[in-house]
From TrEMBL:
This is Sulfurtransferase complex subunit TusD. One of its GO terms (cellular component) is sulfurtransferase complex. NCBIfam families: PRK00207.1 (NF001237), sulf_tusD_dsrE (TIGR03012). Pfam families: DsrE. Signal peptide: none annotated. It comes from the Bacteria. It is found in: Cytoplasm. It comes from Acinetobacter wanghuae. GO terms for molecular function: sulfur carrier activity; sulfurtransferase activity. Keywords: Cytoplasm, Transferase. The lineage of its organism: Bacteria, Pseudomonadati, Pseudomonadota, Gammaproteobacteria, Moraxellales. GO terms for biological process: tRNA wobble position uridine thiolation. InterPro entries: DsrEFH-like, Sulphur_relay_DsrE/F-like, Sulphur_relay_TusD/DsrE.
Length: 122
């Protein structure tokens, strides 16, 4: 059964951590799943987030999974997150998209919803 994990909660939310836990469990069981970061969930892809040394870093945890990490480009840009290509296109001085995350359009979410057998939103 394929699962789509839709992350809309900010990285400071416990729900964002639950999404990671589910992804790790599915990954460990080698069950098919995809993730999509949308709304406030895109903030996990901001490389400029500061996290205290004694706390877990959600961005690093997602990167460690070594899976595809698609992020809604419109939601990201609206929250000040951009990759190098969009920074140039929109005359933004620098980019701050974390490594292994990629900006994509909502068509990718539509495709993921269409092909998933279940969708779980956090």
């Amino acid at each position: 059964m394929s699962t789509l994990i839709l992350i809309t909660s900010a990285p400071t939310s416990i729900h964002a951590w639950h999404a990671l836990g589910l992804a790790q469990a599915l990954h460990d069981k080698q069950e098919p799943f995809r993730v999509f970061f949308y709304q406030d969930g895109v903030s996990v892809a901001n490389t400029l987030q500061w996290v205290a040394d004694d706390q877990r870093h959600l961005t690093h945890a997602w990167q460690a999974l070594n899976i595809r990490l698609p992020v809604c480009v419109s939601a990201a840009l609206a929250r000040g997150i951009t990759d190098q290509e969009n920074a140039q296109r929109h005359n933004i001085q620098q980019h701050n998209l974390a490594e292994k995350f990629e900006l994509v359009g909502l068509g990718e979410l539509a495709d993921a919803v269409q092909s998933a057998q279940r969708l779980i939103q956090f």
